[in-house]
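User: Need the bound-state model for oxa(dethia)-CoA:
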Amino acid sequence: MVETSNEWIIKRTGISERRILNEDSPAYIMGIEASRKALENANLTAEDIDLIILATESPDYMTPSSACIIQGALGAKNATAFDLNAACTGFIYALVTAQQFIANGMFKHALIIGCEGLSKVTDWKDRNTCVLFGDGAGAVVIGEVDEGYGILNSFLGSDGTAGMNITLPNLHLTEAEKEKRPNGKYNSIWMDGTEVFKFAVKAMSSATLRVLEDLNMTVEDLSYIFPHQANTRIIDGAIKKLGVTDEKLHYVIQKYGNISSASIPVALDEASREGKLKKGDNMVLVGFGGGLTWGSIVIKWAK
Ligand code: UT7
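Assistant: Bound-state model below.
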């Protein structure tokens, strides 16, 4: 479809494969599947869940929210459900939001989902973006844990002044946005890749240090870092700045491409199922994305 090569894509992005939804399949079906697996893993039923937050920048409907669709499909009849959009940082934002409700006692168990059907908002004639994005979903269940475990600290950042570096128009379409999409697919992601790249490396390293410093911790104290996976060169740049080796990472981008808000929960799930995460392990989840947004969380693994 575009002038590119396997070699360029693998070398410049680290992506070898991707998963793409059938044209007539909604993205939320992946979210339902991920939620069922997360509930099973947590030994809970859908009725035990009081809150569902779904992070997405590619919802199938503007209303109903994907969170409500999934609540209905699961039979999670006791749950409050809503979508949250912080683009690729969505999972971090959703997890921190859910944590507040658990901490203040309003809810007991929350299901947090990152779910993206990015193939539907990809312009397959734009080589700057069409080689990057994939479809995917990941989910986690959170609840109260023993003192000293779980989420120890978090940080959320936003910079709306730089927001036009990644855009995906919905109802408001300006001439400027049309010009960025000469192929006429106006509901597609456009980005200034180089600007986002520079922002991402800086944001991920600074957000990681910020949440650790508050706790008097350093990267030496971490067993794992789970970054948003948009490009292996971005991750490599950030961990180099932090002085961390890639043994502390679990890469999934080579198999799934950039799956935005789903990349962190998918990596977390894979690492957990492979038995890599042990009780007491310290880890940082860190993301960046459209908005612009970025954020980080320190977790002491409780299971
Ligand atoms: O999750 C948040 C969303 N953001 C992101 O995922 C992306 C962040 N940015 C990136 O990952 C990288 O900037 C890209 C992968 C988008 C681009 O990589 P780059 O190393 O920054 O390339 P570049 O934009 O500096 O372009 C280098 C060359 C250019 O050719 P010339 O001008 O040097 O002749 C591009 O036209 O590579 C060319 N190019 C391609 N060539 C083959 C750009 N895309 C492609 C392509 N295939 N798909």
